[in-house]
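User: I'm putting together notes for a lab meeting next week and I want to include a structural view of one of the chains we've been expressing. I don't have a solved structure, so I'd like a prediction I can at least talk through. The sequence is below, exactly as it appears in our construct file.
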Amino acid sequence: MKNNALNTVLLERVKRISIIDPCPYGQRGWHYLFQSTNPRDFFVGSSMLHLCANEAWVSHSHSPSHYLILRLPSRAQQAILMLLQLSDFTSVLLHFQCLVVITPFTQKVTRHILTGCGIQCVTHIITSGHSLHDLCHYISLLSQQTIHPHPYPKTSLSEANEDVPALTPVERKALQQALSEIPMRHQVRLNNSVAKTIYSRRRSALLKLGAKNVLDILRILILNKYND
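Assistant: Thanks for the context. Below is the predicted structure for the 228-residue chain, given as structure tokens.
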């Protein structure tokens, strides 16, 4: 009964919620949490591709009170890939009033990666380890605040006052393919390029994120896990 009352209040304030959770058990938890609400008011999917494939839902994503909740996986490799994929949908993100990122890593390092990925929409970062009920309670508190619906200026994204340059599309692609463990010979064919160019793009992407190599960027996230 307590969950049902909270969900009703949350949806009255937020109106529409899109949830991206790659964990099947997490998806079931969100469905259970919102089972008493109108199914048109929330969407639960495993990825941004899953969300955008639902044309009926996306076509109504211009609601002035529509939140996007992104729950990052605990594995550093998969978490970075999820954020890199999110940066491929920046035009879709403009339809949401707010992005809420639930992360198993520190808020600082999560915002650092978000900034590098070029995510400039209004973003709130919540550390995971809480129950779904507590997370919904926090999001309902966010909805009581007056949030400007437009993206922040780029210089306001980083809480540590860092100037993290955004990755270019080719840099993001090179890093995505490396983290996806695609063999170099296949990357050469997919990009219609040469290995030297791909390595250069990957190195440029990693340097922007403050890492020397792929293992280093994974190590940065792992060392900043559950520390907030």
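A couple of points you could mention at the meeting. The two ends are 31 Å apart (CA to CA). The first strand starts at residue 16 and ends at 20.

User: Perfect, that's what I needed.
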